[in-house]
C-alpha cells in the first residue's frame, strides 16, 4: 500500500560497468505511523508512571499527591518530550518511535526537518490534528501525498527508510 513518491539520481559507482543508482523514497504506511506515535507516547508515559511510583513510595501514599517528586517527574517528562520530539526529530528526522519503526520525517524537498519545523509539527500540529476528533491524523489515509494535517502545517512528510536501487545502464547497439 505504499507509493513511490520520489526518485533522485545519485552518482554512479565505477565498477567496470555502467550503472545508475537511484534513491527511492516510499511514504510511510498509516499503521507504522500510528505505531511510532504509540512508542513515543509509551516512553513518556513510562517516565511519568515511574516518577509517580517513586513519589508514592517516598511520600507515604495519596497525601503527597502534589509532592515534589511528582513535580520533578512532570518536568522530566516535558524535558524528554522536547528532546525526543523537538531536538532529536529535528536534527535526525527520527524520534524514538520513528527510529524503532524505520520511519523518517523529512522536508518535502528532502533532508531533516530542522528543530523549529519539528517543534511546529509536534507541539502545534499534533494538538490541531486531534481537535476535530482526530480527523487531522486520518487525512493521511485518503491523501494522495501521504501527509496528515500536522505534516501539511510543518511542510514535512513521513517516509520509510531510503532505499538505494541500482539500475544497470542500457547497452547501446551499434
Task: Describe this protein's structure.
The protein has 174 residues and is an alpha+beta fold. It has one domain. Strands 1-2-5 form a three-stranded antiparallel sheet, with no helix packed on it. Strand 1 and strand 2 form a beta hairpin. It is elongated and about 80 Å long. The protein starts with a strand and ends in a 6-residue tail after the last strand. The relative contact order is 0.17.
Overall, the morphology is elongated
- Content of β-strand: 15-25%
Q: Gyration radius, to the nearest Å?
A: 21 Å
* N-to-C SSE string, H for helix and E for strand: EEHHHEHHHEE
* Count of helical regions: 6
Number of strands: 5
Summarize the structure.
By secondary structure, the chain is of the alpha+beta class. The chain is built from six helices and five strands.
Topology:
Layout: E1 4-10, E2 19-26, H1 30-59, H2 68-92, H3 96-101, E3 103-107, H4 115-130, H5 135-142, H6 149-154, E4 156-160, E5 163-168
Antiparallel strand pairs: 1-2, 2-5, 3-4
Helix pairs in contact: 1-2, 2-4
Note the main attributes of this structure:
single chain, 174 residues, alpha+beta, three-stranded antiparallel sheet, two-stranded antiparallel sheet, 6 helices, 5 strands, 18% strand
Amino acid at each position: 500500500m505504499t507509493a513511490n513518491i520520489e526518485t533522485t539520481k545519485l552518482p554512479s559507482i565505477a565498477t567496470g560497468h555502467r550503472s545508475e543508482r537511484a534513491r527511492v523514497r516510499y511514504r510511510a504506511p498509516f499503521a507504522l505511523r500510528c505505531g511510532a506515535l504509540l512508542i513515543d507516547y509509551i516512553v513518556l508515559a513510562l517516565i511519568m508512571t515511574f516518577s509517580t511510583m517513586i513519589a508514592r513510595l517516598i511520600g507515604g501514599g495519596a497525601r503527597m499527591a502534589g509532592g515534589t517528586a511528582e513535580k520533578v517527574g512532570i518536568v522530566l517528562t516535558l524535558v524528554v518530550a522536547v528532546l525526543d520530539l523537538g531536538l532529536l526529530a529535528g536534527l535526525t528526522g527520527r524520534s524514538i518511535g520513528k527510529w524503532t519503526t524505520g520511519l523518517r520525517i523529512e522536508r518535502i524537498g528532502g533532508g531533516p526537518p530542522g528543530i523549529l519545523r519539528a517543534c511546529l509539527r509536534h507541539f502545534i500540529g499534533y494538538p490541531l490534528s486531534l481537535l476535530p476528533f482526530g480527523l487531522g491524523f486520518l487525512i493521511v489515509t485518503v491523501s494522495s501525498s501521504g501527509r496528515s494535517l500536522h505534516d501539511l502545517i510543518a511542510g514535512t512528510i513521513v517516509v520509510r527508510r531510503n532505499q538505494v536501487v541500482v539500475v544497470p545502464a542500457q547497452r547501446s547497439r551499434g
